[in-house]
Amino acid sequence: MDNGGQNTHNVFRMTQHVSKTGFAPLAQLEAYWEALRGNRLMPNRSEIDPRGIEQALEYSFIVERIAPGIARLRIAGSHLSDLMGMEVRGMPLTSFIAPSSRRQLSDILEEVFETPAICSIELHSEQSGNLPPLDARMLLMPLKSDLGDVSRILGALVSVGDMGRSPRRFEITRSALRPIVADAALPPVKRRETPPPAPQAPAKQSEPAFRETQAPFRTVTPRRDAPYLRLVKSDD
């Protein structure tokens, strides 16, 4: 992704400086996604409950991957419809992006699906005619479908300032990917097998101090072939 010589993969969070810029819904949505996934790579699409993201609901969306680099909106909040001036469900996500940045967004979508990763995007719409300049931010977080494949994204698009008349389209000014690592996906630690201990000879009992070694008692039995004396009595 070429972005005018900028490093587009510097790690940063969309939630930075939200208290000053008004992008708090992005922080709320990211916290919700993180809580759902736990130590997994990502949550499932079926786990998303609108009641858990009420404060960010109007800015949120879910897209479905339909081809490499192409994802269409399945669910979209009212803020996205306001930006386009029409119902946006069924439209490609690139509809919000100026033609010069659409290829970049397509590449970002593929990286989010394939890595998988979270992507944070800064957007800007230039002043044109009666349209005031407008800044926005987008957050993309992958989801597993009911079939177990990574083909959904939970995201949000928040603009701050006077929207003017619609539609509004944005240039990508900065993007950053953060690869996802799950604790359960880490390779197990290899443990060296310890051979069983070799049998040891029984320990010799130590002799008490100052005790002399005694010779073993032996019974002496006369040899059968040894000569012996026989008393012979004679009157001669």
Structural summary, described in words:
With 236 residues, the chain is α+β, with helices and mostly antiparallel strands. Helix content is 17%, strand content 23%. It has 4 helices and 6 strands; from the N terminus they run H-H-E-E-H-H-E-E-E-E. The protein has helices spanning 18-21, 24-37, 78-84, 99-114, and strands at 60-67, 70-76, 117-125, 134-144, 150-160, 171-179. Strands 2-1-5-4-3-6 form a 6-stranded antiparallel beta sheet. The chain is globular and about 50 Å long.
Topology overview:
Blueprint: H1 18-21, H2 24-37, E1 60-67, E2 70-76, H3 78-84, H4 99-114, E3 117-125, E4 134-144, E5 150-160, E6 171-179
Antiparallel strand pairs: 1-2, 1-5, 3-4, 3-6, 4-5
The helix/strand series, from N terminus to C terminus, equals HHEEHHEEEE
Query: What share of the residues lie within helices?
Result: 10-25%
Any idea what the shape is? globular
Number of discrete helical segments: 4
Distance between the termini: 140 Å
Low-confidence stretches: 1-21, 185-194, 203-215
Q: How many distinct beta strands?
A: 6
Average pLDDT figure: 80
Estimate what percentage of residues fall within beta strands: 15-25%
Instruction: Describe the strand arrangement of the main beta sheet, using strand numbers.
Output: 2-1-5-4-3-6
Structural class: alpha+beta
Describe the largest sheet.
6 strands, antiparallel
Rounded radius of gyration (Å): 41 Å
Essential attributes:
236 residues, alpha+beta, 23% strand
Short description:
The protein has helices at 18-21, 24-37, 78-84, 99-114; strands at residues 60-67, 70-76, 117-125, 134-144, 150-160, 171-179. With 236 residues, it is α+β, with helices and mostly antiparallel strands. The chain is globular and about 50 Å long.
